[in-house]
Design a protein that fits this description.
291 residues, alpha+beta, Beta-Lactamase, 2 domains, six-stranded mixed β-sheet, 9 helices
Length: 291
């Protein structure tokens, strides 16, 4: 298939521009006089719709906008809409909107919009230009889509991922501490312990690569494959490297691990003692791990 991505709507491409019901879209408040059929469609769809003149001046909002914001009709015309955005999001919204106005490129931005309750909810705003047959912008048509639940879910997942990663790193630290304690008590284990500690360290770096990341925590070089990173890390400590994809993947946050949810994996990993293991001296482990 050779589907064309829609970036605007051009008059005359699907209907005759000389038809008697064609509206002069570049005139102010053109959509308010568009007729009952248009308003029935625009006001009943479960999404906020807005429109501006070619210069970006807002002159139309559907009923959903006023339902959500609770502001008087017409009070957000012109540039009044910006005051409805969260203060921290206004600069980015203005920057992207001005860029679209200058270039005619589609507009898209995420921001927090003030609800009539006073709370802010995350939105994704999009707009496309409507062109005449000469390619001149006659009007912009845009929407506001509520993505607050998706944003909150993504934040919760990120917090859970960071907590799980922290617990796993603690396990690596405890194992390294136990190896160091054993090496101190048994000189014959010294050389082997250094090699083992190197491998534990490599596992820790591999874990940092495969764990889920947010945009801020994403490591550089993400185009590097897991197999390449795994080979590189383990190769630093010597020995033959054998990759078993089913062992490495799926990542630790997947529900494929015996059907356990991430929080269940954390509980089992941290609190479940090893068979026949002796109680750890926390102060001794802390001293080893801090070296």
């Amino acid at each position: 298939m050779n589907a064309k991505v829609i970036t605007n709507f051009q008059l005359g491409s699907r209907e005759s521009s000389s038809a008697p019901d064609v509206l002069p879209l570049a005139t102010e408040h053109a959509l308010q006089s568009a007729g009952a059929a248009f308003h029935a469609l625009a006001d009943t769809m479960p999404q906020m719709v807005w429109s501006t003149l070619p210069d970006g001046s807002h002159d139309y909002y559907n009923a959903r906008w006023y339902e959500f914001t609770g502001v008087p009709v017409g009070s957000t015309d012109g540039e009044g809409w910006a005051g409805m955005f969260h203060e921290d999001d206004q600069a980015d919204a203005w920057k992207k909107w001005n860029h679209s106005l200058a270039t005619g490129e589609p507009y898209e931005v995420e921001y927090r919009l003030r609800h009539h309750s006073g709370d802010y909810r995350w939105m994704i705003g999009r707009a496309l230009p409507i062109l005449n047959e000469q390619g001149e912008i006659q009007r912009w048509i845009g929407t506001c889509t509520d993505i607050d639940e998706q944003k909150r879910t993504a934040l919760q997942n990120d917090i859970l991922s960071q907590e799980l990663s922290h617990r796993i790193k603690n396990i690596f630290a405890i194992v390294s501490g136990l190896i160091s304690l054993t090496a101190r008590a048994n000189e014959a284990f010294g050389e082997a312990s250094r090699d083992l500690l190197g491998r534990i360290s490599a596992l820790g770096r591999a874990h940092e690569f495969v764990r889920p990341h947010s945009e801020k925590s994403q490591p550089e070089g993400k185009e590097v494959t897991l197999a390449m990173r795994w080979s590189r890390l383990l190769g630093q400590v010597g020995g033959e490297v054998k990759l078993i994809p089913d062992v490495i993947m799926p990542p630790v946050w997947s529900s494929d691990h015996g059907g356990h949810a991430p929080h269940d994996l954390k509980r089992r990993s941290v609190h479940r003692p090893l068979p026949g293991s002796a109680p750890l001296d926390p102060s001794a482990v802390a001293a080893c791990c801090s070296r």
